[in-house]
Amino acid sequence: MKRLFLVLGLATGLLATPLTVRAHDMYDDSEAHPLRLAAYAVHPIGFAAEWLVTRPIHFIVSNPRLERVFGHVPHENPFGDYEAYTPPPEY
Q1: pLDDT less than 70: residues of the chain
Q2: Is residue 44 part of a domain?
Q3: Count of Cβ atoms closer than 10 Å to residue 61 Cβ
Q4: Of 9, 20, 33, 78, which residue is the least packed, with the fewest Cβ within 10 Å?
Q5: 22-40 pLDDT, tens digit each
Q6: What's the rounded Cα separation, in Å, for the pair 48 and 55?
């Protein structure tokens, strides 16, 4: 009796699954390269190190009161020599 319920449960589960399965994007052979496979394992480590180590350090050394101590200089203006456009206030 248990085996019958198990078989019916499995059959119901298999029939209830969608008939078409789709991936998030198209697969190509470059995703099977051994270095790409290694990168899938290493990338989360680098991501975690950036957020848990380097960003907190930058937060501390970029503090305006501590910039002279650590020798941090602000980043250059992304607009080069041009100032960002600020629209005039509306009246």
Answers
A1: 17-23, 78-79, 91
A2: yes
A3: 13
A4: 20
A5: 667 777 787 888 898 899 9
A6: 10
